Fold this protein.
Amino acid sequence: MEKLYADPTGKSAHLDQYAASAALKNAEADAKRAHDRGRIYIGNVVLTEQRVTKADLTGRVPNATVTSCLDISNWHTVDADTKKPVSLPSDRLTKYLISGTVQRYPEGWRVTSDEPQGKPC
């Protein structure tokens, strides 16, 4: 994700090695909207407190639901040309709960959905 949002061309990310389905389409569309507005994101994202909350490893498509704390406090939105910070709402969450689904594909596990829960962590 960091590479996708940092590269206005979106070509260096290879996100399809890690995500599929709605998660991949949503991430690519969101990054494109940011890039179309002349914005990139720099810095890093940290996931903590990961927990598997549900798992089905014997079904036709093995999958699991994972909850995490997503920390974007060191991931900054900047103007793509000047690299100057973009003003953002002061009340936005920078550490929040996220729930995601991973599925096993022939090439390996992929994130297929991720949903912010709107709650701080």
Q: What stands out?
A: The chain has a mean pLDDT of 95. Helices lie at 2-6, 21-36. The CA atoms of residues 80 and 90 lie 21 Å apart.
